[in-house]
Predict the structure.
Amino acid sequence: MSTQEKNHQTEIIVTGFGGQGIIMAGRILGMSASLGDHKESTLVQAYGPESRGGACNAQVIISDVPIHYPYVNNPQILVAMSQAGYDKFAAALAPDAVLLVDQDLVNPEKVPCAHFAIPATRMAENLGNKMMANIIMLGFCTAITEAVSSEAAHATIVQSVPKGTEERNIEAFNKGFDYGLSTLKGREKRAAGQTGALVP
Amino acid sequence: MNNPTQNDNNQKILLFLCNWGAHAAFQTLQDQRRPIPDEIHMVRTPCAGRIDRALLLKAFAKGADGVALVGCEPGTCRYGSGTATSQRNTQDLGRILDIMGLGSERLRFAGFLPEQSEEMLSFLQTFSANIRELGPTGIEVAPLIPPPTVTTRKQELQQLIAIHDIHACQDCGKCSSACPLALIGKPFSPRAIAASVIAGGLHSPGVHENVWSCLTCGLCYARCPSAVNFPEFIKDLRNFYRQTELPGQETHGGFFHSLMRSMTSPAIRPKRWTDLPADIRIDPESKTLFFGGCAPYYDIFFGKHSDVDTSRILIDSLRLLNFFDVAPRLLSDERCCGHDLLWSGDKQNFERIARLNVEQIQALGIETVITSCPECFMTLHTTYPAQGIETTFKVVHLYDFLEEQIDKGAVGFKPLERNITFQDSCRLGRLENRADLPRKLLKRLKPLKFEEMKESGASAICCGNCAWIGCDSYSKAMQVKRLEQVQATGSDLLITACPKCQIHLKCAMEDPFRREQLSIEMMDLTSVIAQTIRWE
């Protein structure tokens, strides 16, 4: 694979417990990229016992050119919603990768790259349904990494979630998205030395 | 034109003259037929120090273009402290006149000995010349509305009773059992007022007095099983009384009412926001307006007795807006919202000021108005449309803005090493039914302990006064009761949501016999948030 091709390609691993909606998050990412943003994408999902309760994962590649090999060895984006999932893939993180975690479920140690945290499950519970944590995480991921456009993600979410829950899922996505934007803004502010509202 | 006594512009200068030293000098001028300028109108007073700031301002509000307070030279006051008091009053009101846009140069203090008549003449001539140069103040007193005939008044009263559905009152007494004034021992009963007004006893002494002492805090309305909106009824009754009688129920000598009435004239352009800290970002093109409210006037006025700093709430509000990257627009000639005019029965002047505000804000193309004052919020958000003054802009309370932004995440709070409790604002908590709003923010703070008072939220007790009217010993007793409730929570910081709560509770803490038991530090919720908020 030439370096130029590699630049066009974003490799993502979403990992967590089976039942958290990991595969669905992966599928929405891929579908948003291909159907909404008109790029190429592939999804390799974990079958078998993992997807029913163990550490499960979805591997997504988004590319501007056709994808020849759908497996991800070194993800540029790792989304971890369980400690076991994080432990499994942490070693594969390169220094220029981005790690996103649910801060209540994952305690990342010695992360070699940039990492961002969100209390996605807690936020989903506050919204009234723990099952929407994956959608919140998706919003967060979209804001931080810009792997897909938020319009494309909106459209795909509406198609993918159970009928009647579209509005709540969009709300959840926006919640995660806003949290992501806010996180980026907070980092920028802290980097500029403005942590509080009063002059230090 | 060279005649120093000639008054071409028909201007008026009010001269408050001390009976002792200065009056003798003035009399010499009169006896010798010296050329005292025509516009000087002299009022002889026992002591210049007794002409308080309310009287000085009232002179301007009633049409004076200049006011001279002339007393005795420092050290020669018959009563000892008159000269110092006059100087202090002149200085305070001068600062207020500057913010109002009238200019402190329209008010002068001078002291003369009895033999200094020529010095006094030259002072009066220079002052008159200055005022002629400055021209008229631009204050137009609202035209007097001729009192309605007895028949129309009767009809209007019947209409009032019908609009507010006072006949729905079941005389059950839940209002009186909840009313904080009644509970503190004042012979006051909402249902008795309702019954008397229906029976035609509008002017019976108990009714008349109590209509003016009602706090309009809304607790009776919240308890009423027939939903008789008592605060609104009282508001209209006050306006009804005001049609035929002179004002006189105002506290602080009517200072704030004069201030507000002066601002109802279109030609008055206040000069606000002149001493903002340099780090605050403002955008003169922004479509978002921050409406501050009257805090700077309060701080100067009450600074004489206590160290209230309600302007800090405005500065901290701006800092919080900046924190979330909002650089708002400010109105350099911001007026009062008119809340206290309306709630003290002056509907005519309220409408004048409300129309000016709405026209001004809309002409600037403002889309959103953010305010941290609960009274400004209720007035701009709810009262203007309810009084038939349509607005095209959205009105947002700062707490709503903060809650929305903080809820997006990545924002946290530094621990606050205090035990806190919270004094609700009647306007936000009950009349706007938003008692939950400040609590959402309070729950985000990280104090050592947050404990509610015995009566809190929708049941909270008022700070003791509303619309600068009807302060008496019962108000004080209520404030003491409230402060005892504060102390019972074991808190060391009382968080407030309205600048007036701070002013009133601070006043109650001045009690020399109970200062130790009652005193507690107070801070507005806005300031507490500004101090502890941080990016995570």
Summary: Chain A has one domain: 3-190.
